[in-house]
Amino acid sequence: MALSPPLLIAHRGESVDAPENTLAAINLAWQRGAAAVEIDVQLTADHKIVVIHDTDTLRVAGIKKVIKKSRLHDLANLDVAHFFKPTFAPQHLPTLQQVLDTVPPHGKLVIELKSNASIVPYLTHLLNKSHLQPHQIEIIAFDANTLALAKTQMPQYKMLWLLDLDYYWPWWLLWINPNKLVLKAKLMGFDGVNVWAGRVITSSFVDHFHQSNLLVYTWTVNNPMQAQALQNMGVDGITTDKAHWMANQLLP
Prior knowledge:
The chain has 10 helices and 9 strands. The chain has 252 residues and is of the alpha/beta class. The chain has a single domain, classed as TIM Barrel (Alpha-Beta Barrel). It starts with 6 loop residues before the first strand and ends in a 5-residue tail after the last helix.
């Protein structure tokens, strides 16, 4: 399946050089020629979809507001460039609609669902109104049931199941059966998996998925030697905090 170089995905935008999940980071990625940008989305109390990784705003804004308990207007004026102070201009929490409007004709937006299944109908409505083509949107989630529901509502988009595997435990303590993962992914209608780039990933692991016509993406890779090894294994996508820089490090 992976006969060409992997898709390089800018993790939360160009998140080393600009505040993650902000329009500044996302637009910087597009300006630098990114093929794809990954963002995290959550549902507010008034059913608006905002772009943020954490369940609250404390880490990015220095003020704690729980996303699912807050209305959009409660979040709108927060400065989510907190980590970049005092060198970065204030940034506001973007809505998914604002991010959709940034995607250029060549771009792909990878949307990670951080909320539960309650976000699916609102996401479906928003994406159905989008000017983007189906190949420009992919959806990922750790919660297989939420992702499966999204697939039934939006079958036109590729959906990849996020797996942390050896993110929390050393690889040598785990017994991973890729055949079982392949079977579940196929049964739930997914188009592939997006796997933590740990020791579990080998050429054999990747081949198990490719033999069933499933994609294999990896996250989050900032070491060019590791990225090169993953490319050599045939992975289809590599998520990185430094997409522009990484693109210049990899060999064809």
